[in-house]
Amino acid sequence: MVIIRNKPSGTIFSSSLSELIISSDNDYVELSLRTVGDEITLYKENLWVYNGSAIAYNLSDIIENYMREKGISMLWLQITAQYLDQHDVASVHIVYCDAMLESADDVSVFLSNNFLTRLNTKRVDPDSKFSLYFYSSASDREMYELEYYFFIEGVEDKKSITIRGYVDDESENIYSIGINMADLRRSAALAFHVDSSLISISSFSVRCGERSMDFFIDKSLQYGQAFFFRNIFNAWDFIIVPALTSESTEVEHSLADVGSKSVSYDRNVSKSYEVLTGPIDTDEAKLIADMVASHEICRIIKDVSYPVLITDSECIIKDGEVLQTAKFSWRYAVNRVVMN
Is 319 helix (H, G, I), strand (E, B) or coil? Predict the structure, then answer.
């Protein structure tokens, strides 16, 4: 007899698969986790049975490490518990989530109602360019709707345009919607026969099925720092931090005496940055906390991505409707000075 007692099914978050309990009257059972499709074995071990049960712990860590390495947010996994010709099998769709979400009692409902990000509203700068990601089990390619509001210089009334289009495939069951503020301005300019420099977008919303997210344009964020990072769903996310930044340059070198002079050699120059945010709301503070804890962070300069390392952080979030602040230090991962 081999039975997986807490057998997962359907679509689940990776964080919910922390352990498996297997009932058996044998001395041991073999447990394996294998991806469906490319047949890669993530885990295969013999588990000793004690008092009729064998337990495998920390399976979430194994699965999430693989998904991080592959840069994916969804994985189709086959779980097999076996002893000779006795076996029990479970097939499950796993969506990466390295947090326990109290609001996600029903994972399928959560995924059909939310994009793969923590926020439902976000501030962006007038020149933002990014993608929104989501999970869908629909067999047909989904459509989205983007509605944006703007002013034309010299015209008092606010205008609006609605764009409808098909989402882009990213990987199995993961889709994205690309948003480029410059493209939105150009579309408005063409529609109203004006130059795009006269268009000022104030807000926009994105809807796809039951998912929706609102964005507000904040011109002050043009002077902030944008960080792109893998969020709790291993999807690319971003935040523009309104902050004061202190730059520190450290030069290390060795000295040697050559005749009557001293010379330096093995010179190494490194720059680090300390960021102190301005007043931000609680949701933005939580997103910064997610960012500094992320396993992959970068900054994009002239369409080139530069990996970033967080060297220190302090994100203390206070209860209640109060403005928050956060502080963190970072440096570029490359051992050369990056010039903006």
Answer: coil
